[in-house]
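The following block was generated as part of the benchmark described in Methods. Ligand: cobalt (II) ion.
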Amino acid sequence: MITGLDHIAVAVPDLEKAIKRFMEDFGLILEGTEDVTAVKTATAFFPLTSTSIELVHPLKGEGAIAAYLEKKGGGLHHLCFRSDNIDADIARLKARGYQFLSDAPTMGAHNSRVIFIHPKSCDGVLIELNQRIDAH
Ligand code: CO
């Protein structure tokens, strides 16, 4: 079951500059940064009352975020819905014809299992589902 909007991710060409903007110009509190090496992405999270803003940036200039920035220069990258049973949600959505970017969830930031639904299944919006492993 989907239980909330976990975060909104913005792809940024200069992570340090974007972190400074969110902290110093917008006054948000940086929860921390985390490199997700499996997807070659550096992340920074700014939690809000019921969701977070996630900045995503290529790790070592590689990966899907690098390709995204090259094409678009930056922008709103994906929405992430929080799930309390990601395996059941994947099975339910697959049965309804949704396509995913991988066959099974992978490890994402925050010790969570994550999977992405193909944008062509959602009117062009990239949607991530996540389930925090410690959220039982
Ligand atoms: Co995300």
